[in-house]
Automatic annotation (TrEMBL):
The gene is Aqp10. It is a multi-pass membrane protein. It comes from Dryoscopus gambensis. GO terms for cellular component: basolateral plasma membrane. Pfam families: MIP. This is Aquaporin-3. Coiled coil: none annotated.
Length: 246
């Protein structure tokens, strides 16, 4: 009885009652889960010379990570995990504009932290694979573990259009899944259907730029690589790096 009483009091003291703080923490956790699984899928593929993973496993990791993220915080913050989705929800008047910049900061911060966690998790593998040099281009580059980079034939205009279309298809698809007037998805399986949507987009639109579909997923980890030793080249449009990927 004493232990039960102590745990009850502890839960009461630790309980967060402010709704905005609860939503921000939920968004932080769901985005962290999304990005750490996504980046780990890429890290396993690249650092193992594709012997323990390939493009398909990387795409599956990214898609299933979306599902896990939604199940983690969908009932608290909505598990946006993506500034583009938050923006679309604001346009649809289903999310207040004043919360938008807060969620963007939280999502980007979570992505940055996730990149750091993946760097720690794959630290030895990254340095072994890269021969002790952190590079953005070349046969042993490791920057594409964390952020997506364009294929060498893609222009800036085409890259921009690629992301607008890919992200647009994602948002339209998610809105369609959420719309109660459409054919309903069995309750509780919405995250699974969204994951299948993400997998379909990755499998069909990933070759140009790696299909990030999420500004926070790209900006947060890219900022991490900048401060962690890859340098300012991570922000340049450099040819010859391949299409980087999830």
């Amino acid at each position: 009885m004493g232990t039960t009483s102590f745990l009850t009091r502890a839960r009461g003291l630790l309980r967060i009652r402010n709704q905005l703080v609860r939503e921000c923490l939920a968004e932080l956790l769901s985005t962290f889960v999304l990005i750490i699984i996504t980046l780990s899928g890429a890290a396993q593929k690249i650092t193992s010379f594709e012997t323990k993973g390939n493009l398909l496993t990387s795409y599956l990791a990214g898609a299933l990570a979306v599902m896990v993220g939604i199940y983690t915080a969908g009932g608290i913050s909505g598990a946006h995990m993506n500034p583009a989705f938050s923006f679309a929800m604001c346009l649809m008047e289903q999310f207040p504009w004043w919360k938008f910049p807060i969620f963007v900061v939280v999502q980007t911060l979570a992505s940055f932290i996730s990149a750091g966690a993946v760097y720690i998790l794959y630290y030895d593998a990254i340095w072994h694979y890269s021969n002790g040099t952190l590079t953005v281009s070349g046969p042993r580059e490791t920057a594409s573990i964390f952020a997506t980079y364009p294929a060498d034939y893609v222009s800036i205009a085409n890259g921009f259009l690629d992301q607008v279309i890919g992200t647009g298809v994602l948002i339209v698809g998610v809105m369609g899944i959420m719309d109660a007037r459409n054919k309903g998805v069995p309750k509780g399986l919405e995250p699974v259907v969204v994951a299948l949507l993400v997998l379909s987009i990755e499998s069909s639109m990933g070759s140009n730029c790696g299909c990030p579909l999420n500004p926070a997923r790209d900006i947060g980890p890219r900022l991490f690589t900048y401060v962690a030793g890859w340098g300012p080249e991570v922000f340049r449009w450099v040819e010859g790096r391949g299409g980087g990927g999830d």
